[in-house]
Amino acid sequence: MVIEKRFMKTSKSMLISKKELKKIVQLIPSEDDYMCGLAINCIVFGYHNKQLKVLCIRQEELTKWYLPSGHVRKDEGINQAAYRILVERTGVNNVFLKQFQTFGDVHRIPTDSELAAELDKLPAPIPEKISWMVNKRFVTICYYALVEFSKIIPRIDFFSSEWTWADVQNLPQLISGNQQMVVEALRTIRRELQYEPIGLNLLPQKFTISEIQALYETILNKKLDNRNFVKKLVSMKILRKTDEKRRIGGHRSPTLYKFNKQAYTKALKQEFEMIF
Q1: How far is it, in rounded angstroms, from Cα 33 to Cα 27?
Q2: pLDDT, tens digit, for every residue of 193-242?
Q3: Does residue 276 lie within any of the structural domains?
Q4: With b meaning 16 or more CB within 10 Å and e meaning fewer, what string describes 26-56?
Q5: Which value, in Å, is the radius of gyration of the alpha carbons in the chain?
Q6: Is 2 inside any structural domain?
Q7: Are residues 124 and 203 in the same domain?
Q8: Least CB-packed of 6, 62, 238, 249 within 10 Å?
Q9: Beta strands in 66-146 (DSSP E)
Q10: Helix H or strand E encompassing 22
Q11: How many angstroms separate the CA atoms of 96 and 273, rounded?
Q12: 7 pLDDT exceeds 70?
């Protein structure tokens, strides 16, 4: 499986100094400050080289990957928590973030026996400090985020010292439950592609018609009729033609467009329907 990897690593080792261990322990969320049994997961989508990507992270000592996640503080609402977690993990503000599903099966726990065994290898007292996060049943509220791929530089910490943008069709091995969350998030954005600003958030500010069509085809995983696609976009007046062209050689210089944000917002409020 080919996965595009852009790792950021910290020099973690099982043989860390007492000073380093003390700092790590101090950064671990305390059960006293957070809502027990409630977690937030963010499925962060980006788009690059005609591939829809999902941001995956892990601690470098562990085998499996997981989605950016966190817990809800006792003094914040769930939407506030989701935005905070996204900023903490990606370092970006003002991204499109939307709640789409809650996972709360009675048999569901946030980890599995293999990962639990790996966590037990961490130096004391870390396993004890994080036990409330990994050994109890959690209800997880999931959000999907749409980001411009080039703007994301995930932050590193003890729990996310490595990260990768994985093709949504070729994900790495994820901890239990996270794979299904990605599947459901993808189903949601395919459905909401009709009336949410998905293209606006995944594409750069300026793009060609072929590039926006390629994005929609990638998300939907099917070919679209070029004439109908362009006709529909033009009829809704959500695109604005610029005076710029993209030089791609061979006398080909397609015109660059950008979203007419005012028209797009108006169309979204009217829940326009895009027929693909």
Answers
A1: 12
A2: 877 778 888 988 889 888 989 999 999 988 988 888 877 777 777 788 89
A3: no
A4: eebeeeeebbeebbbbbbbbbbeeebbbbbb
A5: 21
A6: no
A7: no
A8: 249
A9: 69-73, 96-103, 139-146
A10: helix 18-27
A11: 20
A12: no
Distance between CA 65 and CA 163 in Å, rounded?
9
- At 9 the pLDDT is 38
Helix 178-192 × helix 209-220 angle, to 10°: 130
In this structure, are residues 240 and 259 in contact, taking their beta carbons and an 8 Å threshold?
Answer: yes
**Token pair of 248 as six digits:** 């791609």
User: For 155-225, where are the alpha helices, taking DSSP H only?
Assistant: 178-192, 198-202, 209-220
> Are the beta carbons of 28 and 172 closer than 8 angstroms?
no
Domain extent at residue 205: 198-269
Number of Cβ within 10 Å of residue 127's Cβ equals 15
Domain assignment of residue 13, yes or no: no
206 HSE (CA, 13 A, CB side): 9
Per residue in 126-159, pLDDT (tens digit) is 777 777 676 677 789 999 999 888 777 777 766 6
Contact 219, 189 (CB under 8 A): yes
Cis link prior to 110 (omega < 30° from 0)? Answer: no
pLDDT for res 118: 62
**How many helices (DSSP H) and strands (DSSP E) are in the chain?**
9, 8
